[in-house]
Amino acid sequence: MGKIIDGKLIAATIRGEVKNEIEKIKISGGRVPGLTVILVGDDPGSQVYVRNKERACQEVGISSEVKRLPATTTEAQLIELVRTLNADDKVDGILVQLPLPKGNDEIKILNEISPDKDVDGLHPLNMGKLFKGEKGGLIPCTPQGAIELILSTGIEIRGKEAVVVGRSNIVGKPLAMLLLQHHATVTICHSRTKDLGAVTRRADILVAAIGQPKMITGEMVKPGAVVIDVGTSRVGEKLAGDVDFESAKDVAGYITPVPGGVGPMTIAMLMKNTLAAAKLRS
Description:
The protein is α/β, with parallel strands linked by helices. Helix content is about 40%, strand content about 15%. The chain is built from 10 helices and 11 strands. The strands form 3 sheets. The chain has a 6-stranded parallel sheet. The chain has a 3-stranded parallel sheet with strand order 3-2-4, sandwiched between helices. Helix 6 packs across helix 7 (about 170-180). The longest helix is centred in the N-terminal third of the chain and has 21 residues, at about 5-25. The protein starts with a strand and ends with a helix.
């Protein structure tokens, strides 16, 4: 059986590092980093995520505020709020919790966030810096967390064949760019890929981020591969990943569980990004 990559443990270490840095800022009389989350409507999944983010901020010492808005909030009102937060010196990070209620142009709203406060790393300027390999941009949290999980295995990414299943702007594309920066040979697969299993079986590093529960089975995994499962879907009462854990765990060399793998890392990286944004701005 492959080794389980403990995302909870690695995330706790990263949160500890952020907490230590913030303690030093406090001791030196500096301003504590501030994060504002905008939550529109009452999507149950989003409510849980936002509560987890609040708890993490409290733990590491980040000053946090959640703007809870009704689902009837207009796009114009949202943009106005984002612009107000852009101008607020106490706010280092702005995060608009997705998905937004129907009728909102998510890209338009996210593009209003000031690039130096864009702790989700989704502004075109930050995406462009990532694409060009430029320093000083904010990197999307989930891809950054996935890379940390791969590195935690001690396996060198350089020269490895990496396959990313999923091409979203939030995970698939930025993660492919990060893997390229680590000198992997990268293939991106998606719903139109012919014979997906033939491609995934070549992967030394396989990342599943397609949003289809248990789609990647053990027979689609190369023996000894590092398998990172980004997916979270509710199947009955339980959470399931994009990887069929039971069949894949005996083939993979290393594998992340769901829950307890990538999820905690996303929030840990949000804390790290908020601290980084505060430093960039100061």
